[in-house]
Amino acid sequence: MENNKISVGLDVGTTKIVAMIGRKNDYGKAEILGIGRAKSLGVHRGVVNNITQTIQSIQQAIQEAEAESGQKIEEVTVGIAGQHIRSLQHSDYITRANSELVIDEEDIDRLINQVHKLVMLPGEEIIHVLPQEYKIDGQAEIKEPIGMYGGRLEANFHVVVGQVSSIRNIGRCVKSSGLELEGITLEPLASANAVLSQEEKEAGVALIDIGGGTTDLAVFKDGIIRHTAVIPFGGNVITEDIKEGCSIIEKQAELLKIKFGSAWPGENKDNEIVSIPGLRGREPKEITLKNLSKIIHARVVEIVEQVYVEIKNYGHEEQKKKLIAGIVLTGGGAQLKHLKQLVEYITGMDTRIGFPNEHLAGDSDEEIASPLYATAVGLVMDGLKRQERKRIEKAAAEVEEENLENMEAPDPTIEEEPGLTPPLKKERRTFLDKLTERVKDFLDNAE
What we know:
Membrane topology: Peripheral membrane protein
Keywords: Cell cycle, Cell division, Cell membrane, Coiled coil, Membrane
Number of helices: 11
Subcellular location: Cell membrane
Oligomer: single chain
Protein name: Cell division protein FtsA
Region (Disordered): 399-423
CATH class of the domain at 235-299: Alpha Beta
């Protein structure tokens, strides 16, 4: 198999760093060839705060994935999250010089580039500009303006903004680990690609990805992303609370949370007790499961309520914006017992746990289809899509070159039948590709 077929997702999280290698199988599904994970030590709340440690963890995860798959990893698609990510709605318009011509890609590029001139806070940069819907000469709700006539083209945009330094730091870690940056993706978008079905995105759905250090939200409606947010709390703060509340060490708190934790205190009887060995010859501690789940409950309610505020900010309560498919929970934190019931109780919205098996090949490991790996699977899929785009662009360029060569000497014997060769559509380069290049350039010059 040729090398460009594989794609590698690198999920740099607060608790773990995952490197996942995948390729497309014959049915167009993602087949995962290998996975490597390392404890993440240099990341806090989704943001790199210790470059050396992060590089070591990335290298460890990459080596593990290479060993498992027998593939050599050179390029990775990396996810960005963290509390510095925010999003805003913005509308902008352009006036076209010649309304006799139909609207084409270039008009849309011009409109999108105009949004990039928005004045941001110091140190912030636009990561994604996602068009919502277009208006042509005042006619609203146009999904695809290309090919239509009109003088004034305007659109509503969902603009995602993040801190330049944080993005560059991640780029730095990847580069110093001896890897090339193939692409940068917003983590909530990656997770959404992995666990949501197209029907859910059409009907309206909120994806909540509860990670170790952050909780990411992505809201879809009518198949388009409408709102994104990153909330700087995740599974780690629950562990912290258990540690403080029960006066035990972090390792024990984490185990307690995973093995006995529940988000619903009513579930536990008063006499259910766990005994925890004391440190260095001290007496063991006895903790009732009821108290444990009370501590967890209090913190989870806080996280869910913050997310719900964001869902309301999007406008879920308006009839037209109602999220019919409700909520999908994913990420490591989604494995907490009775979380689904609690989320339904707080928000009154239908909820399911999202497993990233929507686009995975049928024979994938059970382990990979865990909510824990949603972001990594999404990043692999993103990398595969990018490669597909590059292939199409390359093919288009080759066809153009051939055409130019053939134009010099037309062959009189062949009569062209009109309309047989469909023009290859050159896909618009997303801003993320441009951002990736900028980060690459920056790192190259900084060396």
